[in-house]
Specification:
About 40% of the residues lie in helices and about 15% in strands. By secondary structure, the protein is α/β, with parallel strands linked by helices. An eight-stranded mixed sheet has the order 1-2-4-3-5-6-7-8, sandwiched between helices. It is globular, with a radius of gyration of 17 Å. The relative contact order is 0.15.
């Protein structure tokens, strides 16, 4: 593990803490700290009207435009954007050789649950409507975006639409009811804390049902999903979310692979250019999606 690299990134992050309790301030803070993160060399970005909030279509010279990865950003359903996560989306395009749609969706608290999930499903319907078969579409996401990726696949199945060819989830935020052990066990895991998770959940769900299958895939029927790859760090609050969803997909008869990255914290892929394991995770995700989109 590149401990020195990770320690440096965490030290730098600690110098710019988020403005807690202010969603608009948190959005500006998050965009600012990610604004200058290097993206893949040669990436071409085109704004498209994919779903209610649009998105950035990213390709590199030589990309196979017949294959599309839809990527949903994280941010607790409160902040984050196609721009803030462009480092992940652009390197995913490079690693996979496919086009990547970095999808935007409407954010809480202005747009509470289940708005983000409805938007994610609308983005998948848009992708199908572009004339590309589901066998050439994969869904990917990190944190809250991982929830949206698997949620969109479940909604597609329930609506009688073809499911995507593959799912790739990076530290998905799935236990919105905070019932799993890694949510309750005291730890020194950085970045995402129980207090921050509660803040996110209150803004997005409020007093609604945090176990509702429409927003909480851990309580949904997980049968009939495509091959799924899950990456999670060993040093994060959401560790058990990944373990649990992988186990439940397997129990439902699905094909799933779980990889726990030793010593990694939440959303370490955002530091890909500066952290070896961040780039390695994206490379493995790209290879997995490329294989299932062929």
């Amino acid at each position: 593990m590149s401990k020195e690299q990770l320690d440096l990134m965490l030290q730098l992050s600690a110098q710019f803490p988020p403005p807690e309790g202010d969603p608009r301030g948190m959005r500006a803070w998050f965009e600012a700290i990610n604004e200058r993160t290097p993206v893949a060399d040669g990436a071409i970005v085109e704004r498209v009207g994919s779903g209610p909030a649009g998105g950035d279509l990213i390709r590199l010279p030589g990309s196979d435009d017949s294959r599309l990865i839809v990527y949903f950003h994280g941010g607790g359903f409160v902040f984050g954007s196609s721009r803030s996560h462009r480092v992940v989306a652009s390197h995913l395009a490079r690693a996979s050789g496919c086009m990547v749609l970095a999808a935007d969706y409407r954010l809480a608290p202005e747009h509470p649950a289940p708005t983000a999930h409805e938007d994610a499903f609308a983005v998948y319907r848009w992708a199908l409507g572009e004339g590309r078969p589901a066998s050439r579409i994969a869904l990917c996401g990190d944190s809250a975006g991982g929830n949206l990726a698997i949620g969109a696949a479940i909604r597609a199945r329930d609506a009688g639409l073809p499911v995507p060819a593959a799912l790739m989830l990076m530290s998905p935020a799935l236990d919105l009811a905070d019932e799993l052990e890694s949510h309750r066990t005291p730890s020194d895991a950085p970045l995402v804390t129980p207090r921050l998770m509660e803040f996110f959940n209150m803004l997005y769900i409020g007093r609604g049902d945090r176990r509702a299958p429409a927003i909480n895939p851990l309580h949904a029927d997980l049968s009939g999903l495509p091959p799924t790859l899950v990456h999670v760090g060993s040093w994060e609050l959401l560790l058990d979310d990944s373990k649990e969803v992988a186990a439940r997909i397997a129990d439902a008869g699905g094909c799933v692979e779980l990889k726990v990255w030793e010593g990694m914290c939440h959303s370490w892929q955002l530091w890909a250019p500066m952290l070896d394991e961040g780039m390695a995770s994206i490379e493995e995700a790209g290879a997995f999606l490329r294989h299932h989109l062929n």
